[in-house]
Design goal:
This protein is an alpha+beta fold. The chain has eight helices and seven strands; from the N terminus they run E-E-H-E-E-E-E-E-H-H-H-H-H-H-H. It has two domains: about 5-110, Beta-grasp domain (Ubiquitin-like (UB roll)), CATH 3.10.20.30; about 115-250, Fumarate Reductase Iron-sulfur Protein, Chain B, domain 2, CATH 1.10.1060. It has helices at about 35-45, 115-125, 145-155, 160-165, 180-190, 195-205, 220, 230-250; strands at about 5-15, 25-30, 75, 80-85, 95-100, 105-110, 110. Strand 1 and strand 2 form a beta hairpin. Helix 5 packs across helix 8 (about 230-250). It is elongated, with a radius of gyration of 22 Å. Its cofactor is [2Fe-2S] cluster; [3Fe-4S] cluster; [4Fe-4S] cluster. Belongs to the succinate dehydrogenase/fumarate reductase iron-sulfur protein family. InterPro entries: 2Fe-2S_ferredoxin-like_sf, 4Fe4S_Fe-S-bd, 4Fe4S_Fe_S_CS, Beta-grasp_dom_sf, Helical_ferredxn, SDH/FRD_Iron-Sulfur, Succ_DH/fum_Rdtase_Fe-S, Succ_DH/fum_Rdtase_N.
Length: about 260
């Protein structure tokens, strides 16, 4: 008798509708070398039959770039929030348990709605407000030392993993989380973006802002891009404190 073919077992938390009751379903797939979680989900979609041999609905999940750049395929894998495109089966303990991130509304199965995070970025003006109507020529140059750390902040892909890991982001708090705070730091560091610096800092001091951070430091531990999120939070703590005194004394000439 030949050796039995190697298989991989997945346990997936499923939900048919946003208001639906979650339930678990198991799938067993043939093992392939260098298999990642996304390729396993694709196989289940191709042939949606569970371990009991019953035909079921294909599992729903999000994906886009498949190279850890877009952040769309974030989910909880064996208890840890991460990207499923870079989660290799060989490095995961079986059965591999897949769940949607719980800090965002679940739409169906592993698909979540990250609109709240995007709305926060809009509210904080996390962009450089140049309308592009006129050719303004080359913008001001950023000093090389500042450019280097600013580039690290620009790697954020709004995957939501830092919010999922943060104990202060929950249904009893309006805390916006580390990613938007770090983006305020990035935009305020830009020579052109700095013209909206005060507005961003004032918004950051508002409801759900930086004062809600408990410095658990989970965010920097789980960030897939290695962004120094706690450094950004500390920097913005300083800047918002200075801004608070500016507001109180009504002075634009305080020494920073």
């Amino acid at each position: 008798m030949g050796e039995a073919a190697k298989t991989v077992i997945f346990e997936i938390e499923r939900r048919n509708t946003p208001e639906g009751v979650p339930y678990w379903e198991k799938f067993e797939l043939p093992y392939r070398m260098n298999m990642n979680v996304i390729s396993a989900l694709m196989e289940i979609r191709r042939n949606p039959v569970n371990m009991e041999g019953q035909k079921t609905t294909p599992v729903a999940w999000d994906m886009n770039c498949l190279e850890e750049v877009c952040g769309a395929c974030s989910m909880v894998i064996n208890g840890y929030a991460r990207q499923s495109c870079t989660a290799l089966v060989d490095q995961l303990e079986q059965p591999i348990r897949l769940q949607p991130m719980k800090k965002f509304p679940v739409i169906r199965d592993l698909i979540i709605d990250r609109s709240s995070m995007f709305d926060t970025l809009k509210r904080l003006k996390a962009w450089i407000p140049i309308d592009g109507t006129h050719d303004l020529g080359e913008g001001p140059r950023m000093p090389e030392r500042k450019r280097q750390w600013a580039y690290e902040l620009s790697k954020c892909m709004t995957c939501g993993v830092c919010l999922e890991a943060c104990p202060n982001v929950n249904d009893k708090s309006d805390y916006i989380g580390a990613a938007p705070i770090s983006q305020v730091r990035l935009m305020n560091a830009h020579p052109t973006g700095a013209m909206n610096k005060d507005e961003r800092l004032n918004l950051l001091m508002g409801p759900g802002g930086i004062q809600e951070c408990g410095m658990a430091q989970n965010c920097v531990e789980v960030c897939p891009k290695g962004i120094p999120l706690t450094t950004s939070i500390s920097s913005m703590n300083r800047d918002t404190t200075v801004q608070m005194f500016r507001n109180f004394f009504g002075s634009d000439n305080m020494v920073e």
